[in-house]
């Protein structure tokens, strides 16, 4: 675009603003830099126009699922770790995410049956969220035959079992300690 | 603090006065020569350019790359050097 050379400094400045390029005054020493930046921006701008439709669609989809994610994130420590890992994968494979989501839901009732008092209360709200979410998107469960488990490094049941084992172990340790302390307390 | 070079520390310690462009961190013989050919023969001229680019990192890096072909590390060193000098003396 040699026509850039013939433009006035004010025109270059206006063009830079149009493309949203941060810039200083257009003087002799900065002119060639800004002309180059404008060339790049123009080249990008021509290619960029047809694609926004696609990106908008993807963003829309991401937004929708993100709303349902936030209540889940506040859950137990072990689970959030695995969730964080599956998140980047989720953004790439939109359909597979929904199936992994539903498998997560299935394993939830298992977890509720355990000893922790606080957890069930936390799980009530997200489960209602998820139920309505699943009802509203019936079409996307087509990819159920695909194995969602491959997206996790450690299977979920292993995590639950490990967590349980640690909890039981701690309980045993604590209960054995109690008897000692009570003896000391008497004296 | 120990991530800056001796050159950087020397430059930032005092007003630049008439120091040559090669006194700037990240600018050695080769890049210094190229800058001199383009008219940037003193450190203060490069400072002038830095200021005209509103001390913006990206703009300054791009300009340095275009003008003397400095690589990413050198761009960063030079930018950091000038920025710190400005913070101290400007």
Automatic annotation (TrEMBL), chain A:
Residues 86-99 have a biased composition (Basic and acidic residues). Pfam families: LEM. Residues 1-45 form the LEM domain. The chain crosses the membrane at residues 156-174. It comes from the Eukaryota. InterPro entries: LEM/LEM-like_dom_sf (IPR011015), LEM_dom (IPR003887), LEM_domain (IPR051656). Residues 40-102 are annotated as: Disordered. Keywords: Membrane, Transmembrane, Transmembrane helix. PANTHER family: EMERIN (EMERY-DREIFUSS MUSCULAR DYSTROPHY), LAMINA-ASSOCIATED POLYPEPTIDE THYMOPOIETIN. This is LEM domain-containing protein.
UniProtKB/TrEMBL annotation, chain B:
It is found in: Chromosome; Cytoplasm; Nucleus envelope. SMART domains: BAF. The keyword Zinc does not apply. GO terms for cellular component: condensed chromosome; cytoplasm; nuclear envelope. Keywords: Chromosome, Cytoplasm, DNA-binding, Nucleus. GO terms for biological process: chromosome organization. InterPro entries: BAF (IPR051387), BAF_prot (IPR004122), BAF_sf (IPR036617). GO terms for molecular function: DNA binding. Its main location: nucleus. Pfam families: SAM_BAF. Belongs to the BAF family. This is Barrier-to-autointegration factor. It comes from Perca flavescens (American yellow perch). The lineage of its organism: Eukaryota, Metazoa, Chordata, Craniata, Vertebrata.
